[in-house]
User: Fold these one by one.
Assistant:
Number 1:
Amino acid sequence: MSRVKKGVNALKHRRNVLRRVKGYRHGRKSKERLANEAIVHAGTHAFAHRRDKKNDFRRLFQTRIGASAKALRTSYSKLMGDLKKKNILLDRKILSTLAADHPEVFAKIVAASK
């Protein structure tokens, strides 16, 4: 059986790893071992933060709705409770968009919920 040298594959792997860490600081951009470790950690954080992003946006939506509701002399919790009782099925993302971009429509929704 002939001998197989792994030089081509090793260079290909090293090149791909170093391409993925372009823009990183210090040895993590140029040393293969540190670059591999950086890729693993970056992937872990990216996975977790994709989940966190959903919570961050929900918090933003609640803040926007609460601020607009306060301007209309009600509170966030009372507004959401009233909407649920009246069976007005608008989610927080839509309510937030209406509160920020179309305050007159939001005011009508608040009036309809009372």
Number 2:
Amino acid sequence: MPEGFFYDVFLSYSSTDRPTVRKLAERLKASGLRVWLDVWEIKPGDSIPAKVEEGLENSRVLILCM
């Protein structure tokens, strides 16, 4: 794993796919990967664009779920 990445995977998805993507995130996490998922990482009061940018910058790969 290259240094400098806090997350292995950043998951991007449409809110209509949230239940399916959440299951995927849980499976990836159970497999030992560090997953960035908005509902896990963005807290009330956070700047959403800033948190997304931070997550992207600190993730090794982006998975676009369609």
